[in-house]
# Entry
Amino acid sequence: MKKVNLKTVLIFAVLVIAALMLAACTSATPAPTQAPVATAVAPSCPEPTACPAGGVDEATVPNFDLWSASPHADAKAEAFNHWNEEDPKEIPTSCAKCHSQAGFQDYVGADGSEVFTVDKAAAIGSVISCDTCHNSGTATLTTVKFPSGAEVTGLGREAVCMTCHQGTAAGSSVDAAIEKAGATDLDTPVKDLGFTNLHYFAASVARYGTDVKGGYQYEGKSYDALWQHVQGVNTCTDCHNPHSLELQVDKCSTCHEGVTKAEDLRNVRMASSQVDYDGDGDVKEGIYYEVDGLRTMLYTAIQAYSKEVAGSAVVYSPTVYPYFFADTNADGKTDEAEAAFANAYASWTPRMAKAAFNYQLSIKDPGSYAHGGKYIIELLYDSIENLNEKLKTPVDLSKAHRIDPGHFAGSEMAFRDWDEAGAVPATCSKCHSATGLPQFLKEGVNISNPVSDGLMCETCHSDLTTFARYQVETVKFPSGASLGFEGKPDANLCINCHQGRESTVSVNKVVAGQDRDTINEKLTFRNVHYFAAGATLFGTDAKGMYEYDGKEYAGQFKHVDGYNTCVDCHDTHALSAKVDACAGCHNGQKPEEIRMTTQGDFDGDGNATEGLAGEIETLQEKMLAAIQAYAKDVVKKPIVYSPAAYPYWFNDTNANGQLDAEEAVSDNSYKATWTPRLLEAAYNYQYVVKDPGAFVHNGKYVIQVMFDTITDLKAKVPSVDTAGLVRPK
# Structure
């Protein structure tokens, strides 16, 4: 039997206990931060007793068999022998951290040196052994520094894994290489520009996404951040045995039916993935295949670009450094003779270097689809899109998708707006964080919550075994009304967020006691927020729109049995409307064409049979024109509107009635010029814009309010056009 040193065993045992204690106190899903990290101070370890001369049996070492069969223990692997023939025979400081025991201990300060640096080259001949990961330095390691310069703090034992499994380069490395090479044009080959290699098994790059900016992220694009799976299966060691490195597939099979081996995970597709990312027509295939489809498309784009723009055809080898080679016979295939160092590709342009980096990233983390597939999908999609700008025949992205529907669009502002702050504030967390809603439902409070990458399963599901949802009987609206769909707790779950943040009540509160046509410099625009479908559906019961005194308004819109609530009409994950269900009663009409029994030419355009969507669209135009006429004639300060730029209302500096690009900026916002009447009207206009389904949610209620808004403005501005307008009864 092989013998091991007892001193090592004793140190190992002490440190395992310390590490477990520390892991129990750390967060499993830390928030990333860019803040500097203080140097960790390693605790002193008790002096071990002397080893017996004969050593001890390997059977006494915990997990020895698992470790000895792992890649970390493979003494013949290239990862531990690459430098054997170097002169001198040593592992340089740039590699020692992850390719030697001494180098890693040096990096984490276990040898008494400064933390997060490797001070000297390491001797060849070691592997990743017990002492590499279990020592005084790793016992206090809670921070990981990434090649991009980003830091992730508050980690548990996964910090040890992530220290190496992060790659050695980032998107910023590509930019640095381009700058160093003196490139001045995106599409001109640069002699001194080469391929930037991320390195291998950079699992934490895919997992943390834009938090650590490991991929090449294109300017003007937003990206998914830390991907949260489910509680208890969220970290490296939750999913991988830390000693054998094997996937703990039994944990996956609890939720993912049919998963009995690691390869089966390729078929997994979460309910949050409802679009066809690679455009192949298959929305049921596993995310692995979506990533692979986009990767194939990117390779096609890279090869086409190399011929058309760079002027030299390229091929790729996943196993031979430096991976990209000249396609000497231009057959598009990597021949054995071509995959040689002497034939390394040498016609790199900056645009091609960026795309190739992302291509390599998608390959060198073979589990990226599980670690953070949506981040990888975004990188691949953007790389194709960017290359397409210069291709004669662009790679077809018309059926591909970059992001998911709203709830799961982790790259979008609804979830990314608080990245710099590091937390979603109490006023926003209920609907803009994965943990805010369940906290509110269970505890009845809104407090700050961690930033999340879209919503999670447990945001709406109270039990991840049965997938039961939170039971909600009534919901309190901004007006103070407590409402709900009787016997439909699932739908009530939706309207906790889809209710807006303002109402008749809140608008009346800020304009109370003021002359309706006198400017009040303290008044500011009241934004209902977005997709207040629940408030629209409940009509005057919720008072989501601004309702005028002395007027009567429609209450809850009740359609027909079975199609009366959010979940009756929308797919709860994809959010898409169940349009096919409408066809049976509505003679195949599209929702926009449906009118129901509501009679009248409400918008005065002479068409009394068009769908309510058309009626509302024309009324919107008349409403905006009336608002602009009032601002010009009464306030004496022209106004324009943007549906996309906050705070939506801006000064019309050239008084042309159109929104010009230079006008839609925060410094030009419409402020200190609001009258109560103008504020009320602007609020209602924004409300209709921000509920694009208002015509079907409660068209009658919406048209009533729009009619009253226009006629209220006409009371002060006779030129406002109300000819032919009809108010629904």
Residues 224 and 411 are 4 Å apart (CA to CA). The radius of gyration is 31 Å.
